[in-house]
Structures are given as structure tokens and as C-alpha cells.
Automatic annotation (TrEMBL):
Residues 44-193 form the HhH-GPD domain. This is Adenine DNA glycosylase. Binds 1 [4Fe-4S] cluster. Pfam families: EndIII_4Fe-2S (PF10576), HHH (PF00633), HhH-GPD (PF00730), NUDIX_4 (PF14815). It comes from the Bacteria. Adenine glycosylase active on G-A mispairs. MutY also corrects error-prone DNA synthesis past GO lesions which are due to the oxidatively damaged form of guanine: 7,8-dihydro-8-oxoguanine (8-oxo-dGTP). It catalyses: Hydrolyzes free adenine bases from 7,8-dihydro-8-oxoguanine:adenine mismatched double-stranded DNA, leaving an apurinic site. The lineage of its organism: Bacteria, Pseudomonadati, Pseudomonadota, Alphaproteobacteria, Rhodospirillales. One of its GO terms (biological process) is mismatch repair. Keywords: 4Fe-4S, DNA damage, DNA repair, Glycosidase, Hydrolase, Iron, Iron-sulfur, Metal-binding. Belongs to the Nth/MutY family. Its EC number is 3.2.2.31.
Length: 352
DNA sequence: GACACGTGGGG
DNA sequence: TCCCCAAGTGT
């Protein structure tokens, strides 16, 4: 049991100073944090691993060094740059947020949690993280790592998400006035490298001797969570249509919802059953002699599996009237293609 | 509280 | 193969 929060925090900060990781968005010791980079990294890291976010962060900061630069850029350029990272609402909100900061805050991020919380794409976690890491203000930063660490240290057996309020209160009692930002990053690093979901490295933990979960032999089983619902499978058929100039037909998806604003290969609706030839004909973007390509594209989204067949055809007269954009094959890299559509393109190119 | 919302890596 | 998981937010 932790009896002295101040001592526990000091011990964790000492561990952090000795094991600090050098991440692309992290200010070096002595450097002043750049709120823009802190914000950008926190958005990219939402539900995303450090290795996945790293290259995107470098490309974004190279191309858009300031929040004003990002605000002045067209949304579509951001979506192209974000393609492949997932959760595309983050990119749409990133652009909105940049414009609000540029136009209503003079290009500077607000420092308080309450003000940050007003901004698009910034929730409780990100507001606390920016306020503490970028501005040195005391804030209770609670992410998945922190919930895991705290649930184990205090042996909280209440299942998630019901345990969230208690875990937040416990985290608040541990958070020091001084170096709150470093404390937050230390907690997250501890969760990411030592107090891991499976096979935690308790022998390396600076809090091992305080840890109630470890003492009870249940640390690895925490935090408790309900079983997840299994994912349904949806099926559809994508239309790989080439015009006489060798360009392929693409479309922009609706601005909201799944893959909102991203570019897609046109397809039938996605339903429980694979569309037959009749449905393929009904939903075709243009009448054409479709031939089915062998195989199927499989992809898994956050909440369902997708199986996409592909049909291909050459567009005859009337291709100019089709709604969408015709993109030369060698220019597909300029498009905001999400990973599932990259799979469709690859499948079509290798089977057509 | 529950659900929508991506992706790639690891066991 | 399949399930779990990652620095969550918006509705």
C-alpha cells in the first residue's frame, strides 16, 4: 500500500529521469515544450502505438511546423497525410482545432484544462496531458496506461469502465504539484514498458514494494474488463473501373462516419451477404461488362470484419459523365486512401 | 453507459 | 488464425 504519495511520486520521477525514452515529440531535458508538437503528438497517439505514430509525426511537423501552417492548409491535404493512421475523425478535428486556435486564440494554445476541453478532438485525457506536459500545470492525466498502473497498485477489482471515477481519484492523490507533466509521462512510460498488459516486469518496477496487486498475486489480471462483443462480418463488391486513358474511378466518402472524407474505390453497400451479379449490376457506377476478379479483400475495422470482392471493367462511352474522380494509376499515392482501399487497389492491380 | 470509429503488431 | 491491444473522443 502506498502510504506517502509524495514519496511515491518522487520515486517514480527518479525512475523516469533514469529511464526517459527519447521520443520524436518529447522535449529534451532543459528544453521548453512546444504546445503545438505536444498537441499534435497527443492526437496522433490516441488509441495508436508509438511506432505507428512516429513517422506521421515527423512528416506532419516537417510539412506543417506551426499550428497556423496547419490551419492554412486544405483539409484534404491533411487527410492525404493522415491516410493509413486510422480514426480519421482525428484528422478532421485536427484541422478544425488548428483553425480555432489560429483564429480565436491568436495562434497560441490555451493553458487550462477547461479551455483546452472546448477544442475539437480534445477530451479529458488530452486536455490534461497538454496542460501538464506543455504548460507545467498540475492536471490529472488518465489514459489506459495510467488506469492499468493505478488499478494494480491499489488492487482495484471493480471492472472497467465502472472503475474509472475511482481510478481518477486515486491518480489525483498521487499527482504531485511539481513536475506534473513529467509525472504523467512517467506513469504512461511505466505502463508502456514495465506495467504492461501481459507479463508485467514487476522486478523492474519502482513501485513493486508498494503494489497491492502484486502482493495479492493478481496484478496481471488487472484492470478487470467485461468480455467484448464479437464482430459481425459485412460483405460487398468493389468496382475497379478504368477509362480509356488508363485512369481509375474513385470517390470521396461522406464527410462524417466511417472513413469520413476519405477516398474510396466505389462499391456496393456492405451488408451481411455477398452481393450477387444482380446486385452488382444494380449498383454499378456505369453499365459495363463486369468480370469478377479471383479472391477477396479481407479487412477488419474497429467494430466489424469486411470481405470485399472486386469486379473490373473498361469504361466505354459516357465515362466522363460518371460521378467521381478519375485518377491515373501512378498518381494514386496523392489520394487519401485508407488502408482498406490500398488493399483493394493492390488486389485489383495484381489480379486484373 | 454504450456504441461508432482504423490499423498493424504481438502472442 | 484469431483475439487483444495502443498516450480516446464524440454522440
Amino acid at each position: 500500500m502506498i502510504r506517502d504519495s509524495a514519496e511515491a511520486a518522487a520515486r517514480l520521477l527518479s525512475w523516469y529521469d533514469r529511464h526517459r525514452r527519447d521520443l520524436p515529440w518529447r522535449a529534451k531535458p532543459g528544453e521548453t515544450a512546444d504546445p503545438y508538437r505536444v498537441w499534435l503528438s497527443e492526437i496522433m497517439l490516441q488509441q495508436t502505438t508509438v511506432p505507428a505514430a512516429g513517422p506521421y509525426f515527423r512528416r506532419f511537423t516537417e510539412r506543417w511546423p506551426t499550428v497556423r501552417a496547419l490551419a492554412d492548409s486544405p483539409l484534404d491535404d491533411l487527410l492525404v497525410a493522415w491516410a493509413g493512421l486510422g480514426y480519421y475523425a482525428r484528422a478532421r478535428n485536427l484541422h478544425k482545432c488548428a483553425q480555432v486556435v489560429a483564429n480565436q486564440h491568436g495562434g497560441r494554445f490555451p493553458e487550462t484544462e477547461a479551455e483546452l476541453l472546448e477544442l475539437p478532438g480534445i477530451g479529458a485525457y488530452t486536455a490534461a496531458a497538454i496542460s501538464s506536459i506543455a504548460f507545467g500545470r498540475k492536471a490529472t492525466v488518465v489514459d489506459g496506461n495510467v488506469e492499468r498502473v493505478v488499478s494494480r497498485i491499489f488492487a482495484v477489482e471493480t471492472p472497467m469502465p465502472a472503475a474509472k471515477p475511482a481510478l481518477r481519484r486515486l491518480t489525483a492523490t498521487l499527482t504531485p504539484e511539481d513536475r506534473a507533466g513529467d509525472f504523467a509521462q512517467a506513469m504512461m512510460d511505466l505502463g508502456a514498458t514495465v506495467c504492461t498488459p501481459r507479463k508485467p516486469k514487476c522486478m523492474l518496477c519502482p513501485w513493486a514494494e508498494f503494489c497491492d496487486g502484486r502482493a495479492a498475486g493478481i496484478a496481471e489480471t488487472l484492470p478487470r474488463k467485461a468480455a467484448k462483443a464479437d464482430k459481425p462480418t459485412r460483405r460487398g463488391v468493389a468496382y475497379w473501373l478504368l477509362n480509356p486513358e488508363g485512369a481509375v474511378l474513385l470517390r470521396r466518402r461522406a464527410e462524417e462516419g466511417l472513413l469520413g472524407g476519405m477516398t474510396e474505390v466505389p462499391s456496393t453497400a456492405w451488408g451481411p451477404e455477398a452481393p450477387g451479379d444482380a446486385a452488382v449490376a444494380t449498383e454499378q457506377p456505369l453499365p459495363a461488362p463486369w468480370r469478377r476478379l479471383p479472391g477477396v479483400v479481407r479487412h477488419t475495422f474497429s467494430h466489424f470484419h469486411l470481405e470485399l470482392g472486386v469486379v473490373a471493367a473498361q469504361a466505354g462511352d459516357g465515362w466522363r459523365a460518371v460521378e467521381g474522380l478519375w485518377v491515373p494509376i501512378d498518381r494514386l499515392g496523392d489520394q487519401a486512401l485508407p488502408s482498406v482501399m490500398v488493399k483493394v487497389v493492390r488486389h485489383a492491380l495484381s489480379n486484373a
